[in-house]
Design a protein that fits this description.
3-stranded mixed sheet, 447 residues, 5-stranded parallel sheet, alpha/beta, globular
Length: 447
């Protein structure tokens, strides 16, 4: 049967699954999902017609694409990419949108990290303004832009927001976002394969380079050497460089002086801890983007007690959302206090939790919760699952059965096999050792 006809016939079941399984409010479901109509299915991609135009397309892209994609696959077995067009769409507009989407994928960007979803407060106002200035005139002002803060306060969000803005407004520019770990891994692989010229071409023949968590290149001589020459090449060509770290350059004592001086050439902007009002705004914004309601008393409880890390704020919301979804009822304050006891414990020392391990690992590997918990077995998703199970066993007191259930696996032997696999990899794989150590450092930094 033709995929278009097959999908049309199953669309009512897909809508029902989205509504039931993802706990969308009636308003969100009726406003954004119901109006969609299937225009065509070709080359492994389904195109939806969106009656409300570009604003609705932007919201669907940010919030609902993965939900729709997963629901289609679960109901029909079809793994399809998703794109949206408005009624006034023309071939030229569609071609431009295709170019933007391709550039975003090549740049390694996460859809949700845009200026639209970044909550501005007194703690990040300067960094946000500097980021917008760079996005509007890449290579002309504040080059390099150096953002620093403790983990989980929005550096990655701002860096990717800059990249998104540049791509959407200058789709011809070559943009790349990369973590310092990925930069190092690629360098090691290029040295092993003797493909250094390809590596240098990739990083030195672009218009915008954003490198996250630059502190992790400290002590790696080859990586620092390549970064130094990459920086010089791009800066000399007036290409934009964006760098982030957990501290200002002068405080990275063992960073080479020649690199430190270059990082200090542009603008240095810090992001401090968010105040109560900003934390509440972040929670409200996430509530709005996710399309569900949380009791005001619960939001106040979270904002009053989680002060040092936005990821923990979001982790609290995700847990409330999951509870509400599974039990199909609102979560009151007393229930929230019990549910969030290991995340919010003002009177006791913070400890690493499985939820924290999941959140940090998702960010490290740039995958979503839905992808992590899916049944997909390719290494892109299976490898992070194994690392999560290994770290849960090493850093928490969870049982093997609990660890398996945490990843939506029923049999505790899944955890045993995953842990054994990572233990073997740690003995022979530099990449696995690096991934595990970086995730551990990030976990320790958010306690």
């Amino acid at each position: 049967m033709d995929d278009y006809i097959f999908l049309k016939e199953n669309w009512p079941a897909i809508l029902e699954k989205i509504k039931e399984d993802y706990a969308l409010t009636n308003v969100s479901f009726n406003t954004w999902i119901m109006p969609l109509s299937i225009q065509r299915v070709e080359n492994g991609c389904v195109t939806f017609l969106v009656p409300d135009g570009d604003i609705a397309i932007n919201i669907l892209t940010r919030k609902y694409t993965l939900i729709i994609k997963v629901a289609i696959e679960e109901v029909t077995g079809l793994s399809l990419d998703i794109r949206y067009v408005s009624p006034d769409s023309t071939p030229e507009k569609e071609e431009k949108q295709d170019a933007i989407e391709s550039a975003i994928a090549r740049a390694n960007l996460t859809q949700k990290y845009t200026f639209d979803t970044f909550v501005v407060g007194s703690n990040n106002q300067f960094a946000n303004a500097a980021s917008i200035a760079v996005a509007e005139a890449p290579g002309e002002v504040y080059n390099p832009l150096y953002l620093y803060s403790d983990s989980g306060l929005g550096k990655t969000h701002l860096m990717q927001s800059i990249c998104h803005y540049i791509i959407e407004n200058n789709p011809g520019l070559r943009v790349l976002y990369v973590t310092s770990e990925s930069f190092t891994n690629e360098l090691i692989e290029s040295l092993r394969r003797k493909t250094m010229q390809e590596f240098r071409d990739k990083y030195r023949k672009i218009d915008v380079l954003a490198i996250d968590d630059i502190q992790f290149i400290i002590g790696r001589e080859s990586t620092q050497e390549e970064f130094f020459h990459t920086f010089n090449t791009l800066y000399g060509a007036k290409k934009q460089i964006i760098v982030s770290s957990d501290k200002p350059p002068k405080d990275m004592n063992i960073l080479e002086d020649r690199i430190m001086s270059r990082l200090e050439m542009g603008l240095i902007a810090d992001i401090s801890l968010p105040d109560y009002e900003t934390r509440m705004a972040i929670l409200r914004r996430k509530e709005e983007l996710e399309g569900f309601y949380i009791d005001d008393a619960v939001l106040d409880y979270i904002a009053s007690n989680v002060k040092s890390n936005i990821r923990v704020l979001e982790g609290c919301i995700n847990r409330i959302k999951a509870k509400k979804r599974f039990e199909n009822k609102d979560v009151d304050l007393s229930t929230a206090e019990i549910l969030l006891a290991d995340l919010i414990s003002p009177q006791t020392e913070k400890v690493i939790t499985p939820e924290m391990i999941i959140d940090v690992t998702l960010e490290h590997f740039q995958i979503s919760e839905e992808e992590l918990f899916s049944e997909r077995r390719n290494s892109k998703y299976a490898y992070p699952r194994k690392i999560i199970m290994y770290l849960c066993r090493e850093l928490t007191s969870e049982s093997l059965q609990s660890i398996s259930l945490l990843l939506h696996r029923k049999d505790h032997t899944t955890a045993i096999n995953a842990i054994n696999s990572i233990e073997k990899e740690l003995k022979i794989s530099e990449e696995t050792r690096r991934d595990v150590n970086v995730i551990k450092k990030k976990l320790n930094s958010i306690l």
